[in-house]
Amino acid sequence: MAVREVKFGILGCAGIARKLTRAIALSPNSTVIAVGSRSEEKAAKFARENGLPESVKLYGSYDGVLEDPEVDAVYVPLPTSLHWKWVRIAAGKKKHVLLEKPVALNAQEFDEILEACESNGVQIMDGTMWMHHPRTAQMKDFLLDTARFGQLKSVHSVFTFPLPKQLLETDIRTKPDLDALGALGDQGWYCIGSILWAADYSLPKSVLAIRDAALLNPAGVIMACSASLHWENGNTATFHCSFFASLAMDLSVVGTAGSLHLHDFIIPFEESKASYSTSANAGFKDLGTGWDPCPSEHVVFTELPQEVVMVSEFARLVGNVKSGGCGPEKKWAVLSRKTQLVIDAVKSSVEKGYEAVEVVE
User: Fold this and answer.
1) Looking at the structure, do residues 226 and 299 belong to the same domain, yes or no?
2) Would you tell me how many other CB atoms lie within 10 Å of the CB of residue 295?
3) Residue 172 lies in domain
4) Residue 185 lies in a domain
5) Which of 47, 220, 288, 343 lies at 20 to 30 Å from 80 by C-alpha?
6) Is the pLDDT score of 137 beyond 90?
7) What's the CATH number where 154 sits?
């Protein structure tokens, strides 16, 4: 059976849209047929700079893309403050939605987005690329191995990179009317998502933002943040995100029998391969002169970059819906919502003067 090609429209020409446009082009079951921006000139410039064919339709509005009957799905890289409006409009036009993270400003907004998608029978997935890398599935197999990893006890996640000084005042991630979640929404989304992934998406009972680690700009947007997460069974996790620290993407997961570590969990050091290390049932050598056994390094090769795998999976789900074989896959929406709930709780902890805040599903 021939693979059905899903026809994408791009809503907005943000920087991240360049990466996803390439991913759609490399995906075996997807193609870009339309680009919409705030002006047709901007849409044309984006198409030209990203090597899109002349057949791609250019629109000077997002509505133009959504009204196009040939568009099956839209990729939405718009500022978070615009997600609630445009995803609901897209769903109403029966367009499936690949949505950049954070998915919304809060869980209530996201619930309304999900209601629109569900009532119109459209697929929604967020753009967390690392979840689709084959390395991620292999690492999960290790975490589920009770003989080598045991039971989860703690997780630590870090995602930081320095915003250039000139962008600290102009970037949309620093503006309360555009991306009010700041570093917490941009970087913290990945940290919290990785923690929940390691915990099989069991939500923590409470979170506590760390006062001395938080940095807010004059507009009140979080520029750096750390928090601890606490479960009823005694498990704990911590994360740190910052627009002021060097590039780091660390994830450490510790169990009763083993541990897992990697330093590039969001964007692998190389596109075609990714590595991680594990330690299982390790102890010290005599006199504490080393480890026995030493940690093992694992390398996972992939023919397609993780963002292409993500697009291909999304397009597969869209194809299933359009063929009438099944309804939208709800798994991805559930995972997005749980991540958003923890984001909300951390933000609330900051706003309440760094008090512990319960995570309410």
Assistant:
1) yes
2) 16
3) 130-304+340-358
4) yes
5) 47
6) yes
7) 3.30.360.10
Residues 34 and 11: their CA atoms lie apart, in Å, by 9
List the CATH number of the domain containing 19.
3.40.50.720
Is the predicted pLDDT of residue 1 greater than 50, yes or no?
A: no
C-alpha radius of gyration, the chain, whole number:
21
Measuring CA to CA, which residue among 360, 335, 357, 336 is closest to residue 347?
Answer: 357
What would the mean pLDDT of 161-188 be, rounded to a whole number? 94
The mean per-residue pLDDT over the stretch 35-39 comes to 96
pLDDT confidence tier of residue 175, bands split at 50, 70 and 90: very high
Residue 158 lies in a domain: yes
Please determine, for residue 151, whether its predicted confidence score (pLDDT) is greater than 80.
yes
Residue 3: which pLDDT band, with cuts at 50, 70 and 90? low
The tokens describing 186, both together, are 């941009």
| Euclidean distance between CA atoms 209 and 250, whole angstroms | 19
93-105, pLDDT tens digit by residue?
999 999 999 999 9
Where does residue 320 rank: exposed (0-12), middle (13-18), buried (19+ CB within 10 A)? middle
Q: Which two tokens stand for residue 105?
A: 């400003």
Overall domain count for the chain: 2
Give CA–CA dist 120/115, Å, rounded: 8
Find out whether 143 and 324 touch, Cβ atoms under 8 Å: no
Q: CA distances (Å), 346 to each of 22, 79, 188, 196, in order? A: 34, 20, 10, 14
308-319 pLDDT tens trace: 999 999 999 999
Read off φ and ψ for residue 11, nearest 5 degrees: -100, 95
